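Journal club side-thread
Mid-discussion, someone asked how the predicted structure for our own chain would compare to the paper's figures. Pasting it here so we can look after the session.
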Amino acid sequence: MRTHMHTPRSGGHRAMLARWAVTLLSLTWSTYHSLAIPRVTECGLSCSQGFTCRNHVNRNVFNSFCRQPPPSMSRSVLEALMLSTVMKCAPQDGCSLLLRVHASLTLHESLRGLEACSMSLDTQETHCHSMRVSRASRRQQVGQQLQVHFNCFEVSMAQSLYITLRTVPHFCGVQLNQQYNVEDCRDEDVGRNVPDCFGEAPFSWDHYLGRPSAEKLSYWVDRSRKVVLVQVPEAPGSPDYYLRLCLKWFTCEDAGEPVQVTANSVSRMVSLPYSQEMPCLCLESWPATPDAVRTQTCPFEDDTEALWDAIHYHPGSQALSWEPACPVSGHVSLCWRPGPGAHCLELENSDRPAHRRVQYSLVDTQPQLCLKFSTSLGFWVRCPFEQPRFPAWKMTIQWAPSRAHLRVAFFSPSPTSFQVRLCHRRKMWPLACHQKLQATPLPPASVSRGDFTTDPPVAFVDIPRDEACGPDTCIQGWRTDMHFSAPQQLCNLQCAAEAQTPGTSDLTELHGRELRVKK
């Protein structure tokens, strides 16, 4: 049997088909964009596996007194503060809202626990919850990452809160803060399940603008095509609409030309292209009426990855800079990795606020030197000098002419000043370092072989064998003619006791591995 397809020829049929397609797409996009609030059966405290934690009685008093942190504690020991709303439901009473506080930290030997406090911005009322890590966990898990969930903050719909996360004991400057707005009755899940919303009319775009109710403004992000698809609601007597993408700072700055959707358009669907997902890239819409209220929706609020890539190195001034493309609350610091996969350790005096342009002058272009970005959502590390096009000096270890010493030799494409220090490992970073030794410069090679690593060294330091060899001992070397330099480090040199063959030396390069120097 043959099936025939009849193509509608009249304009009325085409308009009806277009409205049917738009309605279907609008329903699909609205469902896609709406996410249910997670349910919990009871409030409580939980910690990551392997840790023993317990609730601690708290009097809901916000204590502002603090003590100075120990030198071994980094300001970023509190790594992340993440907030979300959860719902606890009872069959007869409906549902109530709770605030979930998720904290991440690196356990330090001086920390006993965490305290999270929620303050209402309307009433200044404060509620605090705190936890303690057992002594056994603190002793066994030092340096490990600890995840903590607080689920017992009772909140009200549409409440504005200010959350503070601090260490126990409270160390000055070691805390995270974040403002949070609880969902209101316009959220579909809240409006359907929270008793305070019962009897209220559901939120609609046209009701917000003072017009008869109509469908919500719907949008969908097509990341593969880098476009935001918007469906403007259709209602009798509705005016024209303007839509655009903008970068939201204090005001919404243009990121594209406004698109006008006329009242008599057959299709009220608009495609708005964008170049990159950023948290402040927002969809702004307003009716074509005098003094119209403009509203913004920001579909990429959690897409912060692109912010950390705006790093620039200036070879002439040897400066490293970063500038936020969106408003950011947090801080930036330089750090260095002792080895592959290791935690990035902050350099002294490099912490900067992240809300404006950051620049570091005279920066050493070592592959292990990185930028660390810390916000309430977590932290990100970018290492801009990992590419081979950046010149990097090398440090090696060999036997000195005196058999009682090891020689730390430095190779560099240009004359440079270096320093060495001996360090000893302990349970927590940083290492215990002492005895700084200035490297002795050597005259440059008269004829270069083209590869500076095969040329004679530019500087050296001789270290007594008894001090350099042995377990838990590390040798660090770094440049002293730069404001910010990442050290190269070699640990656990095991020096054999047999005599060195005359005229030979085992030259070892430093790459963070445990190496053996033969004598």
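Post-session note: The chain has five helices and 36 strands.
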